[in-house]
Amino acid sequence: MKRILILCFLAAAVLSACSPSKEQGQKTKVWNVASIQVDGHPQNEAVKKMGEIFGQLTNGRYRFEVFPNELLGPQRETLEQVQYGIIEMAIMGNPNVSSFEDGFLTFEMPFLFDDEAHQRRFFTTSPLVEKLFARTEKYNFKIVTYFTAGTRNMYAKKPIRNLADLKGMKIRTAESDTYAKMMKALGGAATPMSFGEVFTAIQSGVVDGAENNEASYSSTKHYEIAPYYSYTRHLIVPDYLIMNKKLYDSLSAQDKQALAEAARQAADYEVELWQKDAQERLAQVKEGGATIVYDVDSKALQKAVVPLHEELTQNPEIKEVYDAVKATSELK
Ligand code: GCU
Hints:
The protein is an alpha/beta fold.
């Protein structure tokens, strides 16, 4: 079914890729962007805004088309589509990028950033970011910008307030060895699977719960089957907007500059939208019957993952990024 969808989409893309823009009397190139998120999600909104800005800065020579809801497949598949130039762009979770470059594994370390502001400070000010991003180019994809994906919290059919509550629980995580190690350190067990599979896995009891930000907890309706959302705040892990490297290389210097400016504004916009969206999502899930658990012993969870930090920072590529992250912390 997915293949058929993609084939139909490709046929349509070929037909629409170069539609003449009436105002300018010139060709408008359409860049297709894959997203697993629902319509109205801050990341999709930010990408739409980026498309508008890029379009304006290039006199309407480019237009973005966002395909939400995993319409073009799970993230791993859309990353391949970007690499092969089947689609131009995709919004990508960190584990798909860290499977190519170890430095990105750093962001999967639990309790790495002090808070979301720290993450933002790191991605907007650290001189390492650009160098780190450039390392994926040899795999034929370029990171255009980071996006915040908020803070991830655990949810299940019961509250999770401490390590004892987590003991023996099977929690769905995204596909990453680091997350498996994290769950083990916290006394539970990770069951990795892609985003679209989680609802059924919770419903059928394959897993006891999962972990995600407010937007995903709400938009997937996981709160209907795992109604306790506990503020464990264990991960603040970014997403990225990636694009085909050859396509990027084919742009003129001026268009590259326009794209960078549009991406910068989109990233700011997304952060701006995120907080408000998270509050609205929380209100929605509460209305839907969810209980929000704030009194979590985060300190105990944090302590339990110290050996994991020590283990991971043995890897020099992780250590380099880890030190750069810590250099942007405002905590003493
Ligand atoms: C969030 C995040 C995605 C990630 C997803 C998941 O939605 O933004 O990048 O893939 O969670 O847990 O799979």
